[in-house]
Design a protein that fits this description.
- There is one protein chain.
- With about 270 residues, the protein is mostly beta strands.
- The chain has one domain: YmcC-like fold (Beta Barrel), CATH 2.40.360.
- It is about 5% helix and about 55% strand.
- The termini are far apart.
Length: about 270
Amino acid sequence: MKTPVWFLAVFFFHQIAFAQCPTTNTVFGDGEQIRYTVSYNWGPVWVDAGLVTFSVTRELFHGKPSWHLKGTGKSFASYDFLFKVRDYFDSWIDPETFRSYDFRRNVYEGGYKLLNTLYFDNNAQLVIANTKTNNNPKRTDTLRMRPCAFDMLSAIYYTRTMDFSELNPDKKKYITVLIDDAYYDIYIRPMGKEIVESTDGNRYRCIKFAARMVQGTIFKGEEDVLVWVTDDANKIPVYIEAKIIVGTIKAHLKDAKGVRNPFTAVVR
Protein backbone atom coordinates (compact mmCIF):
# COMPACT_ATOMS: atom_id res chain seq x y z
CA MET A 1 0.00 0.00 0.00
CA LYS A 2 1.32 3.42 -0.98
CA THR A 3 -1.13 6.19 -0.16
CA PRO A 4 -0.41 9.84 -1.08
CA VAL A 5 0.60 11.84 1.98
CA TRP A 6 -1.48 14.83 0.90
CA PHE A 7 -4.59 12.67 0.70
CA LEU A 8 -4.11 11.07 4.08
CA ALA A 9 -3.54 14.52 5.55
CA VAL A 10 -7.14 15.38 4.77
CA PHE A 11 -8.56 11.91 5.22
CA PHE A 12 -7.84 11.06 8.88
CA PHE A 13 -10.55 12.94 10.70
CA HIS A 14 -13.15 10.35 9.71
CA GLN A 15 -15.16 8.74 12.45
CA ILE A 16 -17.60 5.92 12.10
CA ALA A 17 -18.92 3.42 14.61
CA PHE A 18 -19.39 0.19 12.70
CA ALA A 19 -23.15 0.02 13.27
CA GLN A 20 -23.83 3.64 12.34
CA CYS A 21 -23.98 3.51 8.54
CA PRO A 22 -27.39 5.11 7.81
CA THR A 23 -27.11 8.87 7.47
CA THR A 24 -28.85 11.97 6.16
CA ASN A 25 -26.76 14.45 4.23
CA THR A 26 -27.36 18.08 5.19
CA VAL A 27 -23.67 18.98 4.98
CA PHE A 28 -22.59 19.24 1.33
CA GLY A 29 -24.26 19.73 -2.02
CA ASP A 30 -23.77 19.90 -5.75
CA GLY A 31 -20.89 22.16 -6.78
CA GLU A 32 -18.95 22.27 -3.51
CA GLN A 33 -15.19 22.76 -3.98
CA ILE A 34 -12.59 22.91 -1.21
CA ARG A 35 -8.89 23.65 -1.75
CA TYR A 36 -5.86 23.26 0.51
CA THR A 37 -2.29 24.46 0.37
CA VAL A 38 0.03 21.65 1.43
CA SER A 39 3.39 22.44 3.05
CA TYR A 40 6.35 20.21 3.86
CA ASN A 41 9.26 20.83 6.17
CA TRP A 42 12.47 20.70 4.16
CA GLY A 43 14.94 20.57 7.04
CA PRO A 44 14.32 23.71 9.12
CA VAL A 45 12.38 25.39 6.29
CA TRP A 46 8.67 25.07 5.51
CA VAL A 47 7.95 24.92 1.77
CA ASP A 48 4.53 25.31 0.11
CA ALA A 49 4.68 22.16 -2.00
CA GLY A 50 1.31 21.82 -3.69
CA LEU A 51 -2.44 22.26 -3.96
CA VAL A 52 -5.15 19.74 -3.03
CA THR A 53 -8.72 20.07 -4.32
CA PHE A 54 -11.87 18.21 -3.32
CA SER A 55 -15.11 18.67 -5.28
CA VAL A 56 -18.53 17.06 -5.58
CA THR A 57 -21.14 17.08 -8.36
CA ARG A 58 -24.51 15.43 -8.78
CA GLU A 59 -24.67 13.29 -11.92
CA LEU A 60 -25.84 9.98 -13.36
CA PHE A 61 -23.59 6.92 -13.18
CA HIS A 62 -24.77 4.32 -15.71
CA GLY A 63 -28.24 5.77 -15.40
CA LYS A 64 -28.27 5.81 -11.59
CA PRO A 65 -28.26 9.00 -9.48
CA SER A 66 -24.87 9.51 -7.85
CA TRP A 67 -22.49 11.89 -6.18
CA HIS A 68 -19.31 12.16 -8.22
CA LEU A 69 -16.56 12.85 -5.70
CA LYS A 70 -13.18 14.09 -6.90
CA GLY A 71 -9.83 14.62 -5.19
CA THR A 72 -6.68 15.91 -6.87
CA GLY A 73 -3.21 16.63 -5.57
CA LYS A 74 -0.64 18.52 -7.62
CA SER A 75 2.78 19.81 -6.66
CA PHE A 76 3.56 23.39 -7.64
CA ALA A 77 5.71 23.83 -10.74
CA SER A 78 8.46 25.31 -8.56
CA TYR A 79 8.49 22.09 -6.49
CA ASP A 80 8.26 19.60 -9.37
CA PHE A 81 12.02 19.30 -9.79
CA LEU A 82 12.26 18.07 -6.19
CA PHE A 83 9.26 15.75 -6.14
CA LYS A 84 6.60 15.92 -8.83
CA VAL A 85 3.08 14.88 -7.78
CA ARG A 86 0.01 14.39 -9.98
CA ASP A 87 -2.69 12.43 -8.13
CA TYR A 88 -6.30 11.95 -9.23
CA PHE A 89 -9.12 10.27 -7.30
CA ASP A 90 -12.71 9.68 -8.49
CA SER A 91 -15.58 8.00 -6.68
CA TRP A 92 -19.22 7.54 -7.66
CA ILE A 93 -21.56 6.76 -4.76
CA ASP A 94 -25.26 6.31 -4.07
CA PRO A 95 -26.46 9.69 -2.69
CA GLU A 96 -28.82 8.02 -0.22
CA THR A 97 -26.79 5.12 1.17
CA PHE A 98 -23.23 6.34 0.38
CA ARG A 99 -22.46 2.90 -1.05
CA SER A 100 -19.74 3.05 -3.67
CA TYR A 101 -20.43 2.24 -7.31
CA ASP A 102 -16.95 2.78 -8.70
CA PHE A 103 -13.60 4.16 -7.52
CA ARG A 104 -10.54 5.17 -9.53
CA ARG A 105 -7.14 6.28 -8.35
CA ASN A 106 -4.34 7.43 -10.65
CA VAL A 107 -1.11 8.38 -8.86
CA TYR A 108 2.23 9.78 -10.03
CA GLU A 109 4.68 10.68 -7.26
CA GLY A 110 8.34 11.25 -8.01
CA GLY A 111 8.44 8.53 -10.68
CA TYR A 112 6.20 6.10 -8.79
CA LYS A 113 3.02 5.24 -10.71
CA LEU A 114 -0.09 3.54 -9.39
CA LEU A 115 -3.42 2.84 -11.06
CA ASN A 116 -6.12 1.34 -8.85
CA THR A 117 -9.76 0.75 -9.74
CA LEU A 118 -12.49 -0.68 -7.51
CA TYR A 119 -15.76 -1.93 -8.97
CA PHE A 120 -18.47 -2.52 -6.37
CA ASP A 121 -21.01 -5.21 -7.25
CA ASN A 122 -23.61 -4.42 -4.61
CA ASN A 123 -25.88 -7.27 -5.76
CA ALA A 124 -23.22 -9.95 -5.40
CA GLN A 125 -21.62 -8.15 -2.42
CA LEU A 126 -18.21 -8.30 -4.10
CA VAL A 127 -15.49 -5.77 -4.91
CA ILE A 128 -13.27 -6.26 -7.97
CA ALA A 129 -9.92 -4.54 -7.38
CA ASN A 130 -7.41 -3.93 -10.17
CA THR A 131 -3.99 -2.56 -9.20
CA LYS A 132 -0.99 -1.73 -11.37
CA THR A 133 2.28 -0.12 -10.23
CA ASN A 134 5.02 1.17 -12.52
CA ASN A 135 5.90 -1.55 -15.09
CA ASN A 136 4.59 -4.42 -12.97
CA PRO A 137 1.75 -6.61 -14.31
CA LYS A 138 -1.80 -5.68 -13.34
CA ARG A 139 -3.07 -7.55 -10.28
CA THR A 140 -6.78 -8.41 -9.94
CA ASP A 141 -8.35 -9.33 -6.60
CA THR A 142 -11.92 -10.15 -5.61
CA LEU A 143 -12.96 -9.13 -2.10
CA ARG A 144 -16.11 -9.80 -0.15
CA MET A 145 -17.89 -6.55 0.75
CA ARG A 146 -17.82 -5.53 4.39
CA PRO A 147 -20.69 -3.63 6.02
CA CYS A 148 -19.94 0.02 6.66
CA ALA A 149 -16.68 -0.04 4.69
CA PHE A 150 -15.87 2.82 2.35
CA ASP A 151 -13.51 3.81 -0.40
CA MET A 152 -11.09 6.62 0.38
CA LEU A 153 -13.26 9.46 -0.95
CA SER A 154 -16.68 8.25 0.17
CA ALA A 155 -15.30 7.89 3.71
CA ILE A 156 -14.47 11.60 3.80
CA TYR A 157 -17.89 12.76 2.68
CA TYR A 158 -19.78 10.20 4.75
CA THR A 159 -17.99 11.24 7.91
CA ARG A 160 -18.91 14.87 7.37
CA THR A 161 -22.57 13.85 7.67
CA MET A 162 -22.07 12.38 11.15
CA ASP A 163 -23.28 14.16 14.29
CA PHE A 164 -20.09 15.35 15.96
CA SER A 165 -22.03 16.42 19.05
CA GLU A 166 -22.44 12.72 19.88
CA LEU A 167 -18.67 12.25 20.18
CA ASN A 168 -17.29 11.87 23.68
CA PRO A 169 -13.85 13.33 24.43
CA ASP A 170 -11.09 10.71 24.37
CA LYS A 171 -13.44 7.97 23.12
CA LYS A 172 -12.11 6.29 19.99
CA LYS A 173 -14.28 5.88 16.90
CA TYR A 174 -13.36 3.43 14.16
CA ILE A 175 -13.76 3.30 10.40
CA THR A 176 -13.03 0.59 7.83
CA VAL A 177 -11.53 1.81 4.57
CA LEU A 178 -10.73 -0.13 1.40
CA ILE A 179 -7.33 1.00 0.10
CA ASP A 180 -6.05 -0.58 -3.13
CA ASP A 181 -6.92 -4.25 -2.47
CA ALA A 182 -7.21 -4.56 1.31
CA TYR A 183 -9.34 -3.34 4.21
CA TYR A 184 -7.82 -1.24 6.99
CA ASP A 185 -9.26 -0.15 10.33
CA ILE A 186 -8.22 3.21 11.72
CA TYR A 187 -9.57 5.32 14.56
CA ILE A 188 -10.01 8.95 15.49
CA ARG A 189 -10.16 10.46 18.96
CA PRO A 190 -11.85 13.81 19.71
CA MET A 191 -9.73 16.24 21.72
CA GLY A 192 -12.05 19.17 22.37
CA LYS A 193 -12.55 22.53 20.69
CA GLU A 194 -10.11 25.25 19.63
CA ILE A 195 -9.98 28.38 17.48
CA VAL A 196 -7.73 28.06 14.43
CA GLU A 197 -6.48 30.78 12.11
CA SER A 198 -6.20 29.65 8.50
CA THR A 199 -4.28 31.03 5.53
CA ASP A 200 -7.55 32.20 3.97
CA GLY A 201 -7.49 35.05 6.52
CA ASN A 202 -10.30 33.71 8.72
CA ARG A 203 -10.36 32.35 12.26
CA TYR A 204 -12.58 29.31 12.82
CA ARG A 205 -14.15 27.61 15.81
CA CYS A 206 -13.07 23.99 15.35
CA ILE A 207 -13.36 20.51 16.78
CA LYS A 208 -9.94 18.90 17.17
CA PHE A 209 -9.25 15.23 16.46
CA ALA A 210 -6.26 12.92 16.74
CA ALA A 211 -6.04 9.91 14.45
CA ARG A 212 -4.10 6.69 14.46
CA MET A 213 -3.22 5.64 10.93
CA VAL A 214 -2.05 2.43 9.28
CA GLN A 215 1.57 1.61 9.98
CA GLY A 216 3.61 1.40 6.79
CA THR A 217 5.89 3.37 4.49
CA ILE A 218 4.43 6.75 5.53
CA PHE A 219 3.11 6.54 9.09
CA LYS A 220 4.53 4.97 12.25
CA GLY A 221 1.16 3.55 13.27
CA GLU A 222 0.70 5.96 16.18
CA GLU A 223 -1.60 8.98 16.53
CA ASP A 224 0.28 10.60 13.68
CA VAL A 225 -2.36 13.10 12.59
CA LEU A 226 -4.14 16.09 14.13
CA VAL A 227 -7.13 17.63 12.36
CA TRP A 228 -9.25 20.71 13.11
CA VAL A 229 -12.78 20.60 11.60
CA THR A 230 -15.20 23.54 11.49
CA ASP A 231 -17.66 23.46 14.38
CA ASP A 232 -20.67 24.23 12.17
CA ALA A 233 -23.01 22.54 9.71
CA ASN A 234 -20.32 22.25 7.00
CA LYS A 235 -17.77 20.21 9.02
CA ILE A 236 -14.87 21.15 6.78
CA PRO A 237 -11.27 20.39 7.79
CA VAL A 238 -9.50 23.74 8.24
CA TYR A 239 -6.01 22.69 9.31
CA ILE A 240 -4.17 19.34 9.38
CA GLU A 241 -0.81 18.27 10.77
CA ALA A 242 0.54 14.87 9.79
CA LYS A 243 3.73 13.43 11.23
CA ILE A 244 5.29 11.06 8.75
CA ILE A 245 8.47 8.99 8.95
CA VAL A 246 10.55 11.56 7.04
CA GLY A 247 9.08 14.80 8.43
CA THR A 248 5.82 16.69 8.82
CA ILE A 249 3.07 17.69 6.41
CA LYS A 250 0.66 20.58 6.97
CA ALA A 251 -2.49 21.38 5.03
CA HIS A 252 -4.19 24.79 5.34
CA LEU A 253 -7.63 25.64 4.00
CA LYS A 254 -7.13 27.92 0.99
CA ASP A 255 -10.77 28.49 0.04
CA ALA A 256 -14.18 26.82 -0.06
CA LYS A 257 -16.79 27.50 -2.73
CA GLY A 258 -20.35 26.33 -3.18
CA VAL A 259 -20.70 25.27 0.46
CA ARG A 260 -24.19 24.22 1.43
CA ASN A 261 -24.46 26.03 4.77
CA PRO A 262 -23.31 29.38 6.18
CA PHE A 263 -19.82 29.41 7.70
CA THR A 264 -21.03 30.06 11.23
CA ALA A 265 -17.73 28.76 12.62
CA VAL A 266 -15.97 31.92 11.42
CA VAL A 267 -15.00 34.10 14.39
CA ARG A 268 -16.11 37.67 13.70
